[in-house]
Input
Amino acid sequence: MKRVLLSTSGGDCPGLNAVIRGVVKRAAQEGDWEVLGSIQAYNGILWEPTEIKVLDEAAVAGIHYRGGTIIETTNKGGPFAWPIFNKHTGEWEYVDRSDEMIRKLQLMGVDAVISIGGDGSQRLSQQLFEKGLDIIGVPKTIDNDLSATDFTFGFQTAVQIATDAVDKLVTTAASHNRTFILEVMGRDTGWIALHAAIAGGADVCLIPEIPYDIDKVVEKLKTRYKRGNRGSAIIVVAEGAKPVDGSVHFEAATEVGYENKRLGGVAYELSQQIKAAGFEPDLRETVLGHIQRGGVPIAYDRVLATQFGVKAFEYVLEGKFGHMVSYRHPDIVAVPLTEAVGKMNFVGEDSDIMLTARGTGISFGD
Ligand code: F6P
Output
């Protein structure tokens, strides 16, 4: 029996379970492969005792429409930076356990690993590949910020959820003659904000790629009001947006082994800035947060995720290790991990999608 081990790492994302099911279903057709899942990314291998789950067809039955991941995930630590508390110094230290992990995988009879994760996870995949591990990457993120693939699964679900939020805010904004600020995720890119702004018919969209001038934002908002402050407006702001003369709003991470900057809360700052710039109508803020990555994936993401899962297993059969599955419309292709990591997919200022947004009168505060 040959064995392939799956890991899901980083923030969860609608469609992860559909990838897992795709791998298991395709592997079952071969007859001589067992699929294992490491619980909580690579922690399941590194913990003593190990936590590994056998993923057969019964284990994945009906999971394609379930949000989250049945094998859990984490965006902290990892084999190259395993946190250990030093009682003497009272500080956390980070040790490299990657060689030990590869040895454990060999002892478990694992022939290949499929790592489902975002940019940080695929960086680890490349490092593990360089150490001799036979590994295939599957890109995952609601942010759609990986340049090596046209789309990542989970993104369209996040856009749908954000658009539903805009639709709901439009009616309450109109009833109260208010301006609503909807803050969405996306880290350093504005894909979710841009798509939700177009789909929801927002007036202003603020994204990290285009630092905003608050006076331009207020200028646009005022066009949405008549005398007596009668009117309403919708702003969609990406969590990583910043003013021309300011910086991104983030909080210091307090969780052990968490390396990302915690974004979130720009909506409240923006609200203050708009008021300070002389805007009179009522303002309200909604921070959508993790709702964007919870719940069922929409059909598009289930299909893309299933395609990624089936193809990832086929790359294992073909021995295409050191590659990441990627969507290049209309094909699913293999991209070397070295080319796949570290290159962000930013919203292009002159891209068609931006021209579409500007063509419908959306202001980017520039
Ligand atoms: O990368 C996906 C993402 O959801 C970002 O949009 C967001 O900034 C971040 O993860 C939040 O991460 P956490 O789960 O650590 O709060």
Q: What stands out?
A: The mean pLDDT is 96. Residues 83 and 319 are 33 Å apart (CA to CA).
